């Protein structure tokens, strides 16, 4: 596996400066959330460093990887914004030598979420929604909820994404709906 510094330099070279600033925000937020909710902060930071590694890859390059490396082909029927997450996990494993499935899955599902999200999935996905550089109508509420509940904050995040997609008449990738349903059940049953 590449060292932390090698990863930071390599990932930084893959993106414009403003996206690197976002990545640093996600790293810092993920560490805070990991410490708050009992996840491994080192793994949370590692997943955060790499989460957007493929964000600026050409569509055709991502499409080739999705087709040839057996990533879910249904992704190709949905917003291209979703593709960089599973492709990023593939790159994290192949090019950066990350072997930890918890870290790889957190990268893979950071945009869509999934049913049965792990603690690490939740931390990285939520950090991506609420890092300090984010500014969208629901972000204040999300940050407030995140003081106490990872799940309630994530539900608010997914609500905001789904509403936005509905308003624009766009397709909703089903994993996000499943993630939200599952989190609602989790909150109801655990009382969090
Ligand atoms: N379930 C979904 N179905 C379709 N598109 C989605 C879904 N979830 C996220 N997206 C798309 O992905 C975008 C967010 O991706 P994200 O990785 O958070 O990018 P950024 O970091 O640039 O905000 C949303 O604005 C939306 O266009």
UniProtKB/TrEMBL annotation:
Pfam families, per database record: HD
Keywords, alphabetical: Hydrolase, Iron, Metal-binding, Nucleotide-binding
Catalytic activity entry: P(1),P(4)-bis(5'-adenosyl) tetraphosphate + H2O = 2 ADP + 2 H(+)
Enzyme Commission number(s) from the entry: 3.6.1.41
SMART domains membership: HDc
Keyword field contains Cell inner membrane: no
Enzyme class name: hydrolase
UniProt key word Metal-binding: yes
Residue ranges of the TM segments: none
Domain spans labelled HD/PDEase: 15-142
Name the UniProt record assigns to this protein: bis(5'-nucleosyl)-tetraphosphatase (symmetrical)
Annotated organism of origin: Paenibacillus plantiphilus
